[in-house]
Each structure stands twice: as C-alpha cells, then as structure tokens.
Amino acid sequence: MGELTRISIDFETSHLVFPAIIAIGLGLLGLAIAIRDRRQILAAGAYWRDVFGKADKPRFFGTIGLTLIYFVLMEPVGRLWPNTGLGFLICSVPYVLLTGLLFMRERTPAAALPVAVTAVVAPAFVWWLFTYPFFLTLP
Amino acid sequence: MFEIISPLFLSLIVGGTLIGIIFGAIPGMTATMAVAICLPLTYSLGLENGLALLLGLYVGGISGGLVPAILLGIPGTPSSITTTFDGYPMAQRGEGEKALRIGVVSSLIGGLISLLALFLFAPALADFAIKFSYVEKFLIILFALTVMAALSSDMLLGIFSGFLGIFISLIGAYDVERGGNGALRLVPPGTEYWLESGFSLLPVLIGVFGLAAILEEAENGVGLTRTASSLKIGKGSGFSFSVFRGQIGNLIRSSSIGTFVGILPGVGGSAASILAYSNAKTFSKTPERFGKGEPAGIIASESGNNGLTGGALVPLLSLGIPGDSTTALLIGAFTLQGIQVGPLFIGDHPDTWNAMILAMVISNIAMFAMMYFAIRYFALVVTIPKHVLYPIILMMCVIGAYTINYGVMFDVWTLLIFGLFGWLATKIRLEIAPFIIGFILGPSAEIYFVKSLESFGDLTIFFTKSWIAMVLWGLVLASLVGSITMARKRKAQVDLQTSRGTAP
Amino acid sequence: MKLTRRNILATAAAAVLLAQPLAAQAQQLPRNVRLVIGSKSTGGDTYQNSAIVAEALSEHLGINVKVDAVGASEAFKILERDSRGTTIMIFHDQSYLANLYGVPGYDDPFEKYTVGPSVAINPGNAYLVAADSPYGSMEDILKAAEKGERIRVAIQPGGVSEIGFSALKNAARVRAPGSEANIVPVNTGSQSDKNQAMWDDLADVINGSIQANEQFTQLPADDAKAMRFVWITARPETIAQAPAEGMGKTSRDQLLGFTSPATSVTLDGTSDFTFDKEFFFLYNKDMDPAIVAQIDTALTEIFAAGKIQERQKEAFFIPNFLPSQEAQAHLSAKRDTYAKVIAEISGD
C-alpha cells in the first residue's frame, strides 16, 4: 500500500478529476450496453419508425411547437413593459387556450367554454398572485 | 413556555402551514420559495411571531410535495421524488387516497420524531455531526447513490442513467461557494454564456417528471380522464392504520435518517428521502415490491423528508449553520432582528427556542389536520379533464422554473430541454429515477470526493478515517449486495415465465 | 442586440406602443425597477442590505423596487442587457476582487459597468484560530512563518475571503522575504466548510466573520468547537462606528483590539492593510446619467433623514453613503491597492 495509494490533487485542475472518473464509468457502461443490446440498437431505425407511426403527431409536435413559441415570445413581450410580468400574462393566455384545445378530444363549443375560461382566469390569477402578494419577478 | 401562545401566534402558524402546503403541492413551487417570499414580513411581526410563520411555511412546504408526487407523478418539491416511485403507481391503480393518507400520517410521525430529537439532543447531535469530515460525507452520498442500482429495472441501463445524471450535473463551473475552483468543464464551446452555472435542479426535475409526462400523453393522443367512480375514495379507499403494522421500524428508521441528514450541513435536503428510501428497500423483506406501489416506500420517503425539518434546525440553532436551503433563509429572519444564532443561542434565548419548538409541533399537527381531511378533495384532482389540467400544469412548471432563481430565463429553457430529454429517455429505455438521483447527488459526491483526496492525499483514507466510515461502508455493501441478489432473483423469474426473444 | 426576427418585431412594437411614455420618462427611474444582486442567497448580507436600500428608495421615490437574488454571473448578464434603468445592481468588493484574482466570468466592473454610490459596510470579515491554538495573535503567526512553520489558512478562493489571506502573505513577504511561502491556503467553500476544516485539523487559521463566529469565541476552552479571533480586517474607523455593545458578548472595544493598529498586518512596512466589505450600486454603462443623478439625490436625502442608518445598524451594517463620484474614486483607489498586494505575492 503506502506509496501506491498516495494521490496529490492540484487545486487548479481539481475541477477535472471527478468529471474524468464519471466519463470513464459512463464510457464503460455505454460500451457494455452497446455489446449486450447490439441487436436492438441496430434495429433502432425500425423502432423509431414504429414510435412515430403510432404517435399522435399533431398533438405531440403541436405541444412542442406551442411551448417553443411561448418561451421565445415571453421575454421580448415582457421587455415592452419592464418588470411588470405582463410578458408572462399576455403569452400565457393564448398558450393555455391553444394547448387546451389541442388536447381536447371532441371539440364542441360547449366543451371549449371551460378551456377558454381557464385560459383567462388561471394566468390572470397566477399573475396577480406573483406580482402583488408574492412580489416576485415574472418575464 | 406556553405563555407565548397568542391568537396571532397560532393563526400565523396555521396560515403559514396552509400556504406552505399549497406551495409544496404546486409543481415547481418549493418550501424555500415560500419562506423567501414571506421573510420580509417577519421584520414587522417580531421574532417569535415571524418564526411561527416561517416554520409553518417550512413544515407545510415539505409536506405538500407529496400531493402531486402521488397523484400526478410530478414531485412538488425535490424532497418528494422518492414518494413518486410508489405513490404514483398506487394512484394509477385508483388508490390515490390511500397513498395520500399513508403519506400524510408518515409526514406527521417523521416531523414529530425529528422534533423530539431536536428538543432533547440538539447540542449533542451537533457535536456528533461535526465528526463528519469530507470523507464521511462522501460515503453518505455514496450510500445514497447505491439506491440507483436498487431502483433500476435493468441494472446496466439504470446505472448508466445514474452516471449520466451525475455527468450532466457536473456541467458548468466547479462551484466556488462549495469549495471548487470556479473553472468551467463539460461546457461545449459557444455555450458558456448559458451553461456557466450549469443546469438548476428544479427546472430539470419538473422537466423530466412534469413536461415529459405531458409530452408522452400528447404522443398517445391524450387519453380519457379518469372518472370519479374508478377511484377508490372515501370508505372504499382501502386505507386503515393497519397499513402501518410492521412498519414501526421503518417509520422510526426513516425519520431518524431524515433527521440526521438534516443535521449534516451541506449534504442537502433531497438526500434525506433518498437515503430513507434506499435504507427501507435494503432492509425490507420484500424489496421487489418497491417501485410498484409499495406503501412502505411512501412511508420511508415521507417520514424521511419531514424528519429533515427538525434535523435541519439542529446545526442552525447550535452552530449557526443552516442544514438545508430553507433553514439558510431562517438565518436572515434572526439577523433582521439583530439576534445571533450560534452555539450559545439555545442558552441565551430559551424563550425563542421554546417558541420555535412549540411552533413546529403545532404546525405539524395543523398540517396533519388540514391535509388528512382535505385528501378526499385532493384525490379528485385527477378527475379534472386533462385538456384543462395539463395546460395549467405546463404554465405552473414555467412559473416555477422562472422564479426558482428569481427570474432567469435559461431555467425555463432548461425545463424544455429536460422535458424532451425525459420523453426521449423513456423511449430508449433509460431510467428516470436513477438519472435524477445521480443529478441531485452528483455535485455533493464530487466536492466531498475531491476534497477528501485534496485534504488527505491518500486513497486509503476512505477506509481508515474513522469507525463512522467503516459503518457507512457496511451500509454501502449491504445495499449493493441486496440489489444484486434482487436482480438475480428477478431475472430467474423472468427466464422461467417468458420464452426467449420477447422484448422486455 | 442581434437582428433576429423576434427582436425586430419586438422593437417595432415597442416603438409604436411606448414611444411617447418612454420619451417623457427618459430622465427618471421607471415605475418598476428590478434590483439584482450578486448573491443567490436571500438570507445573506448582500440581500439584507439591498432590501433595506430598496425599501427606502421605493418609499422615497414612490416606485416599486424589487430585489432579485439571481447571483453574480446572472446579475451581470441581466444588467448588461438593460440600459433603460429598469435593472440596477447592488454588489460588494467581490465584483472587482474576483476580477483581480482572475475568476472566470468576472469582468472589470469599472470598465464594463458604471460604479454607483456606496451604501454600507459589513465590518465582519475576520480571521480566527482554534481556542487551543499555539498562536495568540497575528504577530505569533507571522513570526512562526518566519521560523519556517507551515500555517494553513482556510478561505474561499477568488474574492473577499481570499484578500485577507493575500494581505497576510504580503505582510510575511515584507517582514521576511521568502517566509510568505509558509502561509498556504486551504481552499474551502461556505462558512460551515471553513469551521469544519478547523475542527478536522486541516487548517490552523480560518476566515470567518464577527457575526457568524463570535459565539464560538465565547465557548469554554475545553469545547472542541471553541475559537479565538486573531484579526478583524475592517478599518478601525469602521468598527468605531459600530454599537458600543459590539456583537454578542464581545464589546466594541474588544473588537478594536483585533483591528489595526492594535493588530497590525503591514501593507508596505509603514501602514497597515485594512479591508472593509462595502456594498455599492452598479449600473449599465449606457444608462442615462440623469438616472444616476436621480439615485444619488434620492440616497442623499434618505441618508440625511437618518432613518436608514438605524435599520442598517440593527443588522450590524455600518452606514457608508458616498455619492457616485466619490464612491468611484474611493473604490478604484481601493482596488489599486489590492491589485498591488495580489501582484506582489503572485510574483514568487
């Protein structure tokens, strides 16, 4: 033992020690998986075709798309009325409305009403709560 | 010590507990945030009343996290992650109310046991806690990490996911405030502007649990909402106190673990329930039932995270050092009033000390009373039409991500990145539970491991440091052996039951 | 601002909607101001001090000032993006010390931002030894270093916690060139890590603070946690303004025993090194000078009224208002002194 186990870590480079160990572990585990599951990995193309074949594409990609737009717009809109949280409020209403309609199975006017009401009430309430009683910053 | 009880004192505790529960119950809102928001109010309330409010928020916030964890599979706070493992499967079987009741009772017991420890042994426990150097703290984290193996349904993929979680948690600067050198690593060129401080825990958490689950629902076309009649509620919930028969050991052990993790500064609050859960599984006679809706899992997780509440106050009140991020804010409440917390606090301010203990006891009882009787209505959350519920959850996740660090837009993008990652991960059979545990514990594992070697300069220190280290190694080994035998047993069963070639 | 479609859209919309009101209000702080701080903790000294100032400003000007604890690197980024005065920042000496120590992500604040008025000092920065330590004073420590004893000092590198350590090394160099090599850092993080380093016998001296460590100095000597102050880095004039009862069971007079001149850590052989942790405003470089003036005036009036000083002293801050111009001159002179200290000791 003695000499063999001695280790000296230089503070200047100490940020690399642990990531290196974890990276090696990750690499070895990855290799083991690649060997064990090689057949499934080679069949990945067919697997993904199957996944996307079965997926409800409008709802899945619609959710991602709406969320992206929502996130992109929130801050620039908020910058028009700085530090008021209006960016959040103005973007959340259409977002909640549209995702709600997207998720709805049978889109009838009667069923859309609760969605529309929620889309106005929920963001407005949350905005009020965070801006006044909680005094927190929203976009 | 009871003269402090005034109508104002009581209503602040009860009000604080209620607000705390609401914060804990909303995915993305945490006890820490509730305390941060109310901290400025305490200046005008005076010390005892201010603390009553903050402690109520703390207890309520930690407890409320179990509601969405069980009903929606989204942990309301980082400390209720392990509650999802068994709570959500139960809710999917329609046993949401039963799971909630188990969680609430365990929370109460965890809270009270930790208070007892705080009240009777605070100074002695603090003296014991300072015997834990970098080495012992690393071994505690290592033990908590072994639960990754136990939670994996496919050992190899599970451990890979856990390592991936650790790896991703290391992205960014090696945190100076924890003792690192501030240098960046694992940051792809060109992304330094965003990744300088890495990914924050909360957005990652609600991304992989919240957004990912909703994306998966969207992929499957957003199925029908549950009807109230398919739920086991009210008399038919199947809950009775006999669930706790045979669980007394689990309750006491998990509460003590939670308390002790709270006492150790720097180990972090979320480790409490993870350690309690991994311990319960290691010592269970039926470990294979964990993760599939086993009440013992909820008991361990919830008594563990409420055990934290009393424990985290020990170093605060006897060393002046916070035990977790929420108690760090309580220091602010003291200094606002010009009161020092440190080793002399309890002796110098016996009235404040008594008031705090009393406030915590009342808050735990109030938490129990409010939640136990409101459970029936909580349980109906899952009957809200999904097209109404999901958009609101999405919006709340965004708010939680944005406000957790007081308004950082990158945290919102983190939410989306990890939402997509979480969806993708389940598709390629990576496992979320070990991933998130690796992500939570990664930074602590790093700092304690590297600092142990930096300070002692010898690998053998991990074995020779103290008897505490030896005990911890024993636990690590027991947990690993347990997981391996379990995996063997499971494999043998699978081989028996299914023919070869069937995809798992 | 890059010319992306969203920015063009946003700018166009802004121009249409807000051209009038913005033009009218360009000389003033907007109604809603975000005050970001260089700390992530809402329980720490930067937050408390900023909250006191924000409250006073809100009341005095009749606007909303919201303190956001986003942390140093985010705060600088947010400040950089906003020149309209809707975002301002409060931070302390860390802002330029981290730059001097070469911490990644820290630019020179005097160049990249506008340094605004200073508002308060946290006089607490201190160094401590274990109660049973052989070193009774800084003199003992420096002599021991001269004799070749290795002195390990627990600090958090790269800023306020390191500057006293650098000064100690510099003093050793001035007194006995070469002896500074015997003073070595133990790089730790939070206060709890530094205390723990002492209890684990990994450090002989730790950086701490009057507020967080005073109670440990009052423990009986046989308690393993007991400590003793050896040095308080604040200027004696600063401590002299603290309440006479001092902190806890240590009176102001006792505290003065640990500052210069009673405890001397020399800067250059003639004068002593001192360090006060000062809190000051930082603005976007392009912010309207009228807003700078507005905040200066408001703070002058607030400090003249005298109520804010009481709040600050209650929380153990020393009021220290200097309007922008004076603060800039004072802080950049301070920075130059420390730059020299750091340069001297890194020469070896």
Explain this structure to me?
The complex is a heterotrimer of chains A (139), B (504) and C (348). Chain A has helices spanning 17-36, 38-42, 44-54, 57-80, 86-103, 109-131. Chain A folds into two domains: 7-51; 56-131, no CATH class. Chain A is built from six helices and no strands. Chain B is mainly alpha-helical and 504 residues long. Chain B has one domain. In chain B, 71% of the residues lie in helices and 1% in strands. Chain B is globular and about 70 Å long. Chain B starts with 6 loop residues before the first helix and ends in a 7-residue tail after the last helix. Chain C has 14 helices and eleven strands. Chain C folds into two domains: 31-122 and 277-343, Bordetella uptake gene, domain 1 (D-Maltodextrin-Binding Protein, domain 2, 3-Layer(aba) Sandwich); 125-275, D-Maltodextrin-Binding Protein, domain 2 (3-Layer(aba) Sandwich). Classes of the chains: A mainly alpha (139), B mainly alpha (504), C alpha/beta (348). The A-C interface holds A 11, 72-73, 76-77, 79-80, 82-84, 135-137 and C 6-7, 9-10, 13-14, 17-18, 30, 32-34, 64, 66, 68, 82, 84, 86-87, 157, 187.
Report a brief summary of the structure.
Chain A has helices at about 15-35, 40, 45-55, 55-80, 85-105, 110-130.
Strand order of the largest sheet of chain C: 2-1-3-10-4-11
Number of strands of chain B: 2
Average pLDDT confidence of chain C is 91
**How much of the residues of chain C is beta strand, in percent?**
15-25%
Distance between the termini of chain C: 44 Å
| Number of helical elements of chain C | 14
Which chains have the largest interface?
A-B, 64 and 64 residues
Q: In total, how many domains does the architecture of chain B comprise?
A: 1
The chain-level mean pLDDT of chain B equals 89
**Number of discrete domains of chain C:** 2
Portion of residues within helices of chain C:
40-55%
Which strands sit side by side, in order, in the main sheet of chain B? 1-2
CATH class of the largest domain in chain C: Alpha Beta
Write the H/E string of chain B, N to C.
Answer: HHHHHHHHHEEHHHHHHHHHHHHH
Tell me the β content of chain B: under 5%
What integer value in Å does the Rg of chain B equal? 22 Å
The number of strands of chain C is: 11
C-alpha termini separation of chain B: 61 Å
Order of helices and strands of chain C: HEHEHEHHEEHEHEHEHEHHEHHEH
